[in-house]
């Protein structure tokens, strides 16, 4: 079995993920938000790619809350932004969260041709690795990226996931997967690497240091969200 990485959501095609299991990673911050919401009792997370689609989807569901961002800031009229700190049980318990973000929900949607699509981040690196290793598919880790470009934060998180997967069973790594693994091993504190990322600096300029601190907490949660038929849940 093989592990490969697609470095931005924009590069995902149905053919590139066909007959594989995909792990979508947007560590700062969409997949960290999804994991946090479901850990704190959300019934589901429905990822959509536009504000208009979010508003239309809201009409079809009950007990809904709208979350997301554009340019890393809360969308006007939405209840929540893209901060995992906002998705506590008081806000999301037993609710259907409709989420739209610049990068992460786009990458999730584009990965739908895979056999299975799991949601990963540093928050659940070990758990998602164990889940994926149960299967027999080749694995593609989709980095959401930032505005269609490579994102350092997603890449080192991919290395963390790959390291965990290799501790469970053997895989053949592509060159890009090997590079992510090497970067992870060279920066076990994460921050020494991620602080050089463009997206990190954008979030810091917006005063979102607490978000970053949470998102870099490896293996805080042991849950594995799965995307299926347009919805993300813990159990189907």
From TrEMBL:
GO molecular function, one term: 2-phosphosulfolactate phosphatase activity
Keyword Magnesium: yes
Any Pfam family the entry gives: 2-ph_phosp
Reactions catalysed according to its record: (2R)-O-phospho-3-sulfolactate + H2O = (2R)-3-sulfolactate + phosphate
Enzyme Commission numbers on file: 3.1.3.71
Cofactor: Mg(2+)
Listed InterPro entries: ComB-like, ComB-like_sf
Keyword Magnesium belongs to the record: yes
Keywords, ordered alphabetically: Hydrolase, Magnesium
Similarity comment: family membership: Belongs to the ComB family.
The protein's name: Probable 2-phosphosulfolactate phosphatase
Gene designation per UniProt: comB
């Amino acid at each position: 079995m093989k592990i490969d990485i697609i470095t931005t959501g924009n590069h995902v095609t149905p053919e590139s993920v066909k007959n594989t299991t995909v792990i979508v990673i947007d560590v700062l911050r969409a997949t960290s938000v999804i994991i946090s919401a479901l850990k704190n009792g959300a019934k589901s997370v429905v990822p959509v790619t536009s504000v208009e689609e979010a508003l239309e989807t809201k009409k079809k569901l009950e007990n809904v809350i709208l979350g997301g961002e554009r340019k890393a800031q809360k969308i006007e009229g939405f209840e929540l932004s893209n901060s995992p700190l906002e998705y506590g049980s008081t806000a999301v318990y037993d609710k259907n969260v409709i989420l739209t973000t610049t990068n992460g929900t786009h990458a999730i949607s584009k990965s739908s041709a895979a056999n299975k699509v799991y949601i990963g981040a540093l928050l659940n690196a070990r758990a998602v690795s164990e889940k994926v290793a149960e299967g027999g598919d080749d694995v593609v880790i989709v980095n959401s990226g930032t505005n269609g470009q490579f994102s350092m934060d997603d890449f080192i998180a991919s290395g963390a996931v790959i390291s965990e997967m290799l501790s469970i069973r053997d895989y053949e790594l592509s060159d890009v997967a090997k590079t992510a693994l090497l970067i992870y091993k060279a920066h076990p504190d994460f921050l020494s690497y991620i602080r050089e990322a463009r997206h990190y600096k954008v979030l810091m300029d917006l005063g979102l240091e607490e978000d970053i601190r949470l998102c870099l907490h490896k293996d805080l949660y042991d849950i594995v969200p799965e995307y299926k038929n347009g919805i993300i849940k813990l159990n189907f």
